[in-house]
Design a protein that fits this description.
This protein is of the alpha/beta class. The protein is built from 9 helices and 9 strands. The chain folds into 2 domains: 133 residues, CBS-domain (Roll); 67 residues, Histidine-containing Protein, Chain: A (2-Layer Sandwich).
């Protein structure tokens, strides 16, 4: 299956700052562009960190007791005293390549517990940003596009199964398969392949019950 790539979903218009950008200018940028974080780049436009709203809020939390902060936030006195991006940022920046699949990007976000990835080129220069909400756009795929990919890429190309053997119905991303499988193919394997198709929400296989070849076998004697 050909998953959508980060390049297909990322935003190429990225607001960025440098290490010397003052605290208040960062706060203005977040509000002006309605964003929750901004990447920090060096003189060659390579990401060195990210400043988020949470980083800025240390300025408020810094003078209070630990109980006053959000439970998930560890107070950082250094950030409370910081006056520019270099002192505020979380570093290093977690980055992605534009040719990553949406699956790779989602796994890295989950592993690091972050909401966005900075996208860099082969020279590690910033070329875009991809967020959780961007990745969720895969679930906007049309049902017909999902069905076509399952039939052509999963059943025929990957499994060598005749399209007429398995009926594929897709409604709101939920896939229902029905039919008979070749003896070498298991239902869990088929369902797993279908779940890997972009836009699939759930998969269910409904085997067709075999009918005795001899109709007389069903007649009472």
């Amino acid at each position: 299956m050909n998953h959508l790539k980060v390049r297909d979903l990322m935003s190429g218009a990225v607001v960025r700052v440098q290490g010397g950008t003052p605290f208040k200018e960062i706060a203005h940028l977040l509000q002006e562009y309605d964003i929750t974080a901004v990447p920090v780049v060096d003189d060659e436009d390579r990401p060195v960190g990210v400043v988020s709203e949470a980083d800025l809020l240390h300025k408020i939390w810094g003078g209070q007791d630990d109980d006053a902060a959000e439970p998930s936030v560890r107070l950082r006195p250094d950030k409370a005293l910081a006056t520019d991006a270099a002192g505020l940022m979380t570093s290093p920046a977690v980055c992605a390549r534009e040719d990553w699949s949406v699956v790779e990007a989602a796994r890295v976000m989950a592993r690091h517990g972050i909401k966005r990835l900075l996208v860099v080129d082969d020279e590690r220069r910033l070329i875009g940003v991809v967020s959780r909400s961007d990745l969720l756009r895969v679930f906007l795929r049309k049902d017909q596009a999902i069905r076509t990919e399952i039939v052509e890429e999963v059943l025929v190309k990957a499994l060598g199964q005749a399209p007429s053997d398995v009926q594929v119905d897709v409604t709101h991303g939920q896939v229902v398969l029905s039919g008979r499988l070749s003896s070498r193919l298991t239902i869990p394997a088929l369902e797993e392949l279908c779940r890997n198709v972009d836009g699939v929400v759930a998969v269910e296989f409904r085997p067709v019950r075999e009918v005795d070849a001899d109709p007389a076998a069903h007649l009472s004697t």
